[in-house]
Give the backbone structure.
Amino acid sequence: MTTFINIHTLISHPSSMMNRDDSGLQKTAIFGGTVRSRISSQCLKRSIRQSEIYGCAVDEVSVRTNKFDDLLALCVEKMPDVEPKIVEDVLMNLGSKIKKEKNKETGETVRVFDAVQPYSLGAIKEAINMVNAGTELKALKGISQIPTLDVALSGRMDASCPERNVEAAMSVAHSITTHSADIEVDWFTACDDLAEQGSGHIGTTEFSSGVFYRYASINLDLLARNTHKTQEELGEIVNVIVRCFAQVTPSAKQKTFAAHNHADFVLVAKSNQPLSLANAFRKPIPNTGEVMEKSIESLVEHYEKLSEGYELDSEAIALDMTDSMKSEKITSVNMLSDIAFNY
């Protein structure tokens, strides 16, 4: 039986705009017939990967890039004891296709990979050691796919070299508000201190506020296979991911809005299947002063109904900062560090 860790958090953000579309507008989604503010899963995952909490927990955060020459320069800088030509040869034989194109800013011809991919400096160093030990360069294509913990969680898809593909052990949903969202517009000016009157710049930006539901599911069996570890050894990283989903916020527009908020409610369920609780908010929660408390009640009620109705093999624990959770089936804990299960 496959084991999943399902992470559900409710986090309240005041005025903010942490994720926007290609037009610079607040990302939204229509759910239950109403407009909700949205933060994409890509935005959340990148914020987590770049956070100090995550960086301190994994051995190495992969470098995601398609810039061959820039990656080569970084490897040479980080590996001063290795001949640059050897580093270049190893990078060229990892499997990803390399092509040449003009740099739009400088006009120079540069080498790039055919797509943005995660590259582990540690794995590249290991490949260099193998070459120095006598492994042929062409043999690296079938060896260099061994993933780091970072890649094991988020996955890797390389169409030009299927041997490097890694199925992500963690699935992350787009975060949406539990209630209907009103997208507002901020009209702002940038004053010119040396001008007698008027502004140096006038502009507008959208923003919204609300209680966001975040959901992620970790396939423990797949994570164990990807990392070549036992499930018992994965408790620490699961705890770190839970903490990240409760504490990490995207950085966009934070210098303007400073929406640095932690989750008021965290529910973690150990189950034999992935399970989103987004439908607890298909009917939007009334956006009143008790929107968080009502969201928690709806989330817990929906979880219990699903657990009973489908006879799910699921255990849950929760952290409730509002003390509004009313459930006999969910154990409440006081410390996030205790929220991961003891495997």
